[in-house]
TrEMBL record:
Residues 217-248 are annotated as: Disordered. It comes from the Bacteria. The lineage of its organism: Bacteria, Pseudomonadati, Pseudomonadota, Alphaproteobacteria, Rhodobacterales. Residues 220-231 have a biased composition (Acidic residues). This is Cytoplasmic protein.
Length: 248
């Protein structure tokens, strides 16, 4: 059940201006009955000025009269149509004016380095709208040529824990859908701490040149020839002489 605002001040006013029991007041303001007793004795909330719930549209006089006549009657907060749905309202977080110009850069960073995040997650992280995110994804934003990706955590638009939670949620969703991730995608989907803790793997050939490692212009590689042993005479092609031509 909803509670009135300024509970102690409301309790002070009800004690001073009505004959409602301590139990009824305690149930209405969400306090313990002994606390209400302490307020009446002056031991709790001394100096607190009473807050009139009737004037402030929290109680009706008829409700107070009914509670005074029946000690078992529970006070009910006055219905306020303007407050309906306030507690359940959800949407982009408020971003200070001084940081709103940084949002496109943070959106660009999230789109580039965490493409697995849904638009709703990005909107919640940095306090933006889905049309803006879509414009940056499709590079149709009016200032796209001047936008540079910047980490939203570094800009102070969200906390690292919030970003990690959103990424982990994306991981769980992708795993539930049975998607197969590459090594690069896997590193993007985890937090910075987890990524740094991963074991290094053997370097792989980039996808762009994959398959070229066996490519050669001459087709099949020629067989290796046996190395010929060449002596000095044959190398310099020196003419040989007979023993008879030698003079003493």
């Amino acid at each position: 059940m909803s509670k009135p605002i300024m509970a102690k001040a409301t309790a002070v006013w009800l004690i001073d201006n009505t004959t409602i029991s301590f139990k009824q007041i305690a149930d209405f303001v969400g306090m313990h009955e002994l606390e209400i007793q302490g307020i009446a004795d002056g031991d709790v909330a001394p100096g607190v000025k009473g807050f009139d719930p009737v004037t402030n549209n929290q109680l009706t006089q008829e409700e107070i009269d009914a509670a005074e006549k029946n000690p078992l009657h529970k006070l009910k907060l006055k219905f306020n149509a303007a407050a309906v749905g306030e507690e359940k309202r959800r949407g982009p977080r408020y971003t200070p004016l001084s940081k709103r110009q940084d949002r496109p850069a943070s959106i660009y960073w999230l789109v580039k380095f965490h493409p697995e995040l849904a638009d709703s997650q990005i909107a919640k992280l940095v306090g933006t709208t889905k049309p803006t995110i879509q414009a940056i994804r499709e590079r149709t934003h009016w200032n796209i040529a001047n936008i540079q990706p910047v980490d939203p955590v570094a800009l102070g638009l969200c906390k690292q824990s919030e970003l990690d939670a959103a990424v982990q949620k994306a991981v769980a969703k992708k795993a539930a859908e049975g998607g197969v991730m590459s090594d690069d995608e896997r590193r993007k989907l985890v937090s910075t701490e987890q990524s740094l803790a991963m074991e290094e793997e053997a370097p792989k050939i980039p996808t762009a040149i994959e398959g070229l490692e066996t490519f050669s212009l001459g087709g099949d590689e020629p067989e290796e020839k046996e190395e010929e042993i060449i002596d000095a005479d044959s190398f310099f092609n020196l003419p040989g002489g007979s023993d008879d031509d030698e003079q003493p």
